[in-house]
Amino acid sequence: MAGQVCGGQRLRRRWQAGRAALPRCRRPPQDPRARRVLWWRGDRLGGRAQRDALAREPGEPRAEVRAAAGLRAGEPPKNAPFRRTHPAHFGNFPEMTDGMAVSVSPTRMEEVAHVVAMEQEALPWVCPFPAARHEALIADPAAFHGIARDEAGQPVGFLILEGLGHPDGSVMLRRIVVRRPRRGYGTQLMRWAMHFAFDRWQAHRLWLEVFTDNAPAIALYEKLGMVREGELRECIRHGDRWRSLYYYSILEQEYR
Description:
Order of helices and strands: HHHHEHHEEEHEHEEH
Number of strands: 7
Oligomer: single chain
Helix content: 25-40%
Number of domains: 2
Strand content: 15-25%
Radius of gyration: 23 Å
CATH class of the largest domain: Alpha Beta
Largest sheet: 7 strands, mixed
CATH architecture of the largest domain: 3-Layer(aba) Sandwich
Shape: elongated
Number of helices: 9
Structural class: alpha+beta
CATH topology of the largest domain: Aminopeptidase
Strand order of the largest sheet: 1-2-3-4-5-7-6
């Protein structure tokens, strides 16, 4: 009948009234880098001030930002899922293999040419990235791009980790390249990556991809306790042939 309100309309009006009473949420920043920092860092500031500050500062927040959030210098955000470590705190890897120590430091933009050259030396075990891809990874707050050096300070390799601060605690070792193999550098660099992911970033899982015919790398991963999870058959066109990949991973409890 005219003038009567049916049950469906009554429920809809009640839902609309409840929705109108909710506080308006700001749209997430359009810059994907700023969005990742804002959602994964978990700092306790809201609105444009936090978004702008974190978008401009991909590393540790500025002192005034941390002070406004009620955090002391070097203290992680209280509701962040993982503890962050500023690249300036990265130091020498404490363990040694065959008497050789490897230090890892964040890659600088002016060092990208050396990284690209090391990738070319590692063919055919890697698919080289263009220089622009390396520069984007260096600037990405959710990734770590680092160069490994020997005791004399000479570059002996590099590594790339992605997914730092991921809500699921899954960190990917995107790339690891050693310039002079069979000297223990690969083992040290892998142990450094595990230490960095599990001890510095409180990750739950570290995983990687490796070509199925890369026997030395596979032997190293299995020696360090990584488990083969599966195979992607002929998923990459490399030159004139198709190549397959293995998935390897290690969990936090297995690393401990």
